[in-house]
Amino acid sequence: MKSRWIIACAALAAPGIASAQTRDDPRNDWSGFYVGADVGLASGRIKASGADEIFQLTNINPPGTQPLTVVPGTTISYAGSRRHSDILYGGTAGFLVQTGNLVLGVEGDAHGPRDAARYSGNFGLPATALAPPGTVTIARDARVDWDWSARGRVGVSLGSDMIYADGGIASARIRLRGQDTLMIPAGNAAPTAGSPPFATPTIGPVTISASRRGTMTGWTAGIGGEHRLASHLSLGLDARYSDYGHHNYDLGSCVPNTACGNATVTGGTITFPAGTNPASISLNSTDAYPGASPGVTRVSLNEWRISARLIFRF
Q1: pLDDT (mean) for 120-146
Q2: Which of 249, 300, 295 is nearest to 136 (CA)?
Q3: What does the alpha-carbon distance between residue 193 and residue 197 come to, in Å, rounded to a whole number?
Q4: Would you call 13 helix, strand, or coil by DSSP?
Q5: Is 241 exposed, middle or buried (0-12, 13-18, 19+ CB in 10 A)?
Q6: Which residues, 6 or more positions from 135, have their beta carbon under 8 angstroms from its beta carbon?
């Protein structure tokens, strides 16, 4: 009889002993400070919109009677979006507290430079008295100088594994580069009363480019999991969405017959037929030149990312 009681008591105590051993296993305790590094892939989507001013060769008088002039010929409004993917790398640090199977904590991270997203669109230009119809290519390129986030975390411990969800604030320093390229093929310009159509040589490509930096701040949320490799080392997988909000970038403007300020102009020299005045236009001086001015661009940026993480726990 006595042996039966001993066996029964041992059977009842066994689960408790096993549970205590599980809790005492350092691989199952997620509490404490940690630091880590991560590498992965980020896929950003840019939404860009604005209205760029186009300076075109024009003259209401018959060609050759007075110097060529460049005036605001039209305004092109654009809006569109594109997605781009690039390598993501950075570091993270945080602190967790475990209560039973519930794991609560805070985490911050930062990541280095990468190409975030790009947009481009092609638009037609009407003919003028001195130029046939042309095209303008509007391009915007967003590059992340760095980004950071601060998030709260709620997780569930599964022994040496943990799954979690988190969310918080996200911010990024973004450099936006704007580039407008004007191209006018050789051909006859629009006819004018009393004069034959003006034969225009190829004009372009004339590229006006500028860049600005700005900070965009929004929110981020994601999910992830970790597996304990050893008492102080774990391997994780983190997936997250970030919305950095919107920002207006003033890329400046080029005004004919003046310096370009923030923007730069690249092109060649336009040589016109004999008898016109002037006979050529230098695109790299303060002489008159045609072109498209980037102006103000409104940018919205969001990003999906997934990364593998190596975590060291103190």
Answers
A1: 89
A2: 295
A3: 9
A4: helix
A5: middle
A6: 122, 123, 124, 125, 182, 183, 184
